[in-house]
Amino acid sequence: MDTREFEAAQDFLLAAKKYWTTDMYRSLRDVYQSRVQGSGKPEPKSVGEVAELLEDEPTYQYFSWLERHLQRMKYSGPYGLVPYFSAHRTHFLGALGEGSPKVKLTLDESLPMPDYYRGIDTHQHVGGLWSDEMAGIVYERGARTTTPLLGEQHATLHDHFTDFIYAGGPAPRLLDLGCGFGKSTRPFANAKGSEQVVGIDLSAPCLKVAKSLTTTIGNCTVEYRQMDVTALAFEAGSFDLVTSTMLLHEIPPAAIEKLCREAFRVLRPGGRMVHLDFYRFPSTLRKFLHFGHGKRNNEPFMISLASMDLPKMLTEIGFVDLEIEPFSETGDAPGTDPAEWRFPWTTICARKPV
Amino acid sequence: MIYPPYERGIPRAEQTFFENPVIDRFFGSYMALAIEHHLLADRVRILEKALETAGVLPQGALSQERTPEERRIAEKAAADLTERLLKPLVGVQDALGPPNPTSLREYR
Question: Structure pTM?
Answer without folding.
Answer: 0.87
